[in-house]
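Slack export, channel: ligand-projects

TW: morning all. Re-posting the request from yesterday since it got buried. We need the structure predicted with the small molecule present, not the apo form. The ligand is flavin-adenine dinucleotide; the SMILES is in the block with the sequence. No rush, but it would help planning for next week.
GE: picking it up
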Amino acid sequence: MKKNISTLHDCYGCGVCIKACPVKIIHLRENQNGFYAPVIDEQDKCIECGLCLKICAFNHNKIAAETTGNISFAAWSNDENTRNWCSSGGIGFEIGRKLIEQGYEAVGVRFDSEKNRAEHYIASTVEDFMPSVGSKYIPSYTAEALLAIDRHKKYLVTGTPCQIDSFRRYIQHFKVEDNFILLDFFCHGVPSLLLWNKYTSELTQKIGKITFASWRNKSTGWQDSWSMNADATTGGESIDWHDSYNLKIRGKKHLYTSRKSQGDLFYRFFLGNFCLNQCCYTTCKYKMLSSSADIRIGDFWGKRYETNNQGVSIAIAFTQRGKALLETLNSSCTLIPEPTDIATEGQMHKNAYRPLSRDKVIKALRTSLSLKQIYWTVIFPYRIIGKIYKTLNKIKS
Ligand SMILES: Cc1cc2nc3c(=O)[nH]c(=O)nc-3n(C[C@H](O)[C@H](O)[C@H](O)COP(=O)(O)OP(=O)(O)OC[C@H]3O[C@@H](n4cnc5c(N)ncnc54)[C@H](O)[C@@H]3O)c2cc1C
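GE: finished. pasting the full token output, ligand included:
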């Protein structure tokens, strides 16, 4: 087999190889485990230039950018609506707004209800950038947006740390780093699209065709806030944030809300790590301060803002350009310098734990079993076995 991206397995699925390939033979498709992966149908057309492997973050042990220092802030938008709609303090949106005003285009992630997927897209106006508000806790389809980027123009590119690490390699290779500001976030990992497809298909039967989905909602406060709301994209209804991890989906018949704190199954599977991408457990190199971005954002969990009901973001600048950009936000945002160890207190220090049942869960997600059935027949028995094992180990020691 020719030496190209198709020889890698269980990669990040960032799609940057599709952008880099000079003969455009790489495609991004969902694999059998429900994650995007690069595929080459016509191997004979490969010219073996090696660029796909050169820019691939998964193909390298080290990250593309060496972080030399950082400056951390607790941050939030001074605009109440923005802060309400976003996952934490709305700092991601404010960074995009500022750069668009300066003539950049912004590459963000929106939810496409027709295709039932999260996808990267390019926004040239602040209004266009609004659908990027709010985290979509599923893998995003990057190919179309990446192909549309003109590397001689100026862009903000947002994404998971692995997407951004490959993209940094791409702009380093073409020596166009000055045209780009890169933004990533502290990343838990991404769950399988098999979970998302099953969850939304079960829901469609109850509420009709889903026209909007969002993963966070602050109506009962930020600490418990995972949910979705249609009006976030049109600038209508405002949501109170400091609530719970909950899921709110707008279908044709009525609005559906389901909170993690009340046992929502999407969040149980996702945050229980039962069906993350294989690389999220084993080959994620991006926890804590390991990043190829100019700026990393996140939820400011931890003690400092635990009584804040509206949401507080972390913003960490790793580069001079990132730092200079954060300084320009002073008129639209509140930025409070915080020691980095305080800012990152609530973040994952290492990769997600891989439950024993993970492969069985992925397999079951491919069947006609409902999520509830999978929970009780696959996940639950393993949890009991795990508990017995732990207790026996305690007794032994
Ligand atoms: C899969 C995933 C896991 C995360 N894990 C953590 C975590 O462990 N700890 C933590 O503090 N924060 C995590 N975040 C980030 C967090 O949800 C918020 O984005 C962050 O607090 C910033 O909030 P905000 O209000 O400024 O921005 P938001 O309004 O949430 O927007 C953040 C940016 O993320 C981009 N984005 C949204 N969905 C995706 C996606 N699926 N793929 C790529 N880019 C996307 C958007 O384009 C937007 O620019 C995660 C986000 C995602 C998508």
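GE: first-pass observations. The radius of gyration is 21 Å. The domain at 5-59 is CATH 3.30.70 (Alpha-Beta Plaits).
TW: perfect, thank you
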